[in-house]
Specification:
alpha+beta, eight-stranded antiparallel beta sheet, four-stranded antiparallel beta sheet, 8 helices, 16 strands
Amino acid sequence: MRSCIYLFSIVILFTSACREKPEFSNFAGTAQGTTYSIVFENSPKLDPFALKAEIEKILDDFDMSLSLYKDSSILSRINRNEDVMPDEYFIEVFRRSVEISYLTKGAFDITVGPLVRAWGFGPDEHKDVSAQKVDSLLCLVGIDKLKLTDGKIVKSDPRVKLDFNAIAQGYSVDVLSNYLLEKGIKNSLVEIGGEVRARGSKNGNPWRIGIDRPEDNNMIPGQNLSAVMEMEDRSLATSGNYRKFYVENGIKYSHTINPFSGYPAKNRLLSATILASDCATADGIATACMVMGKEKSIEFLDLHPEYDAYLIYSDEEGNFKTWMSENLKGLVFEE
């Protein structure tokens, strides 16, 4: 469910002639059905190859907790109502999801899984939807239908299913970024599927992140950018409707499901890029903004100045327009 963000122009600069140039390393791979990349300030104490192996072990463990695409994951087993004890990853993502759901007044909701699947955006990509089915599945939507009791998930109805796709990727970015910090790495950039967390800087300069233009089928990150953003010590996540969608009978259906109506979100907001202190929160709020639409998103952001946003929307003539938080002016360079 994600909109990819291109890691733009990560360049190693010379700081001065009298000081040794910091050395940066990077590696990339695949995880969670997408790609990841990590750039970090190296030191003689670190072995980048060993670090990559440790990172991929964390990502594997993460998948076995929260992936909808692994039948043996904790999430899949809980969705089948098996008696299983959640691990720390699961519990933390669940708690964060509840917080963001209440914060956004239900625009973000991890119980939309059955609706996501019915509309053809689940692991099997099989569409099976009708007005009657939407009505029946809406009865299973709502964060109030779940509780964490004695370390286990308790459902008010066994048919309730969880879907962490709108927050798990952001949280995994946080996990890896925190892991690098524990290793003594103070300057790093972690990106998974377009969700980003930047720590410190690159030789005293902000990290530069490209934001893709939200045109249908703009599938190659960085090929067609709307803007480049500078950031330090913050997280960024983008949600949009231009990569995961299908058109049927001339109607476009996006992967973001409105938990109030049960139908794919439909408004003029094309993509929402959110900046927050952690990537899980940025990820969840970006999804909520796609549900709320431009005007309600701006109202929400006015009430929560701890988050910044760069919104791309279409006007009545179909032209691309942008809106950004005051704090981002001077940090965003539009193409």
